[in-house]
Design brief:
- With about 160 residues, the chain is α+β, with helices and mostly antiparallel strands.
- The protein contains four helices and eight strands.
- The termini are far apart.
C-alpha cells in the first residue's frame, strides 16, 4: 500500500503515534477552504510536545478561530523531508491576506516563535535537510508577550 502524503482529514489521532501516513490534516471552515494559499506557518516541536500542540491548533483551525485555511502535522512515520527525527512540525496554511494575523494569533496561543515558508519555496524543493540554509522568509518571535517580526527578503 502506498503511503499518502495527507491522511486523516478531520483527524483526532495523536500524530506522535500515527504511522499510517506522513501527515494528519484538518481543514478550516468552508469559506476559507476555497481561497488559494500563499504558504504556511511552521511550528516546530519536540515529539513529546507535538500531540498537545496539534490538538490546540486543530481545534482553532476547524472552528475558524485562527482564520487559517488548513493545518497538518507530521506523524511518527519517518519522512524523507524531515530535518530531525526528534522534532515534529505543524504547518498552518494561510492566504496572502491573512499571513500576519494568523501568525500573531498562533504566537499568542503557543507563546513560541514560529516561521513562515511560502508554497513557492516548498514547490521549488527548498528543504533544510537538503542543505538549503534559508528556507523560510519570515519569523515571529514571542519575546515574552511582545511579538516581533522579521521581514521577508526578496532574492
Amino acid at each position: 500500500m502506498a503511503v499518502s502524503s495527507v491522511e486523516c482529514l478531520g483527524s483526532t489521532v495523536d500524530p506522535s503515534t500515527f504511522t499510517g501516513g506522513y501527515w494528519v490534516y484538518v481543514e478550516g471552515p468552508d469559506h476559507l477552504r476555497s481561497q488559494p494559499t500563499l504558504g504556511k506557518w511552521l511550528i516546530f516541536r519536540k515529539r513529546s510536545e507535538l500531540d498537545k500542540t496539534w490538538h490546540m491548533v486543530r481545534q482553532c483551525v476547524t472552528s475558524g478561530e485562527l482564520g487559517a485555511v488548513a493545518a497538518k502535522s507530521s506523524t511518527a512515520l519517518d519522512n524523507p523531508n524531515a530535518w530531525s527525527k526528534d522534532t515534529g512540525v505543524i504547518c498552518v496554511y494561510t492566504t496572502e491576506d491573512d499571513v500576519d494575523l494568523v501568525g500573531l494569533k498562533l504566537v499568542h496561543m503557543l507563546k513560541h516563535d514560529i516561521r513562515y515558508k511560502t508554497d513557492e519555496a516548498t514547490y521549488s524543493g527548498m528543504y533544510a535537510n537538503r542543505g538549503v540554509q534559508k528556507t523560510t522568509c519570515k519569523t515571529i518571535y514571542w519575546n515574552d508577550g511582545n511579538p516581533s517580526f522579521t521581514k521577508c527578503r526578496k532574492a
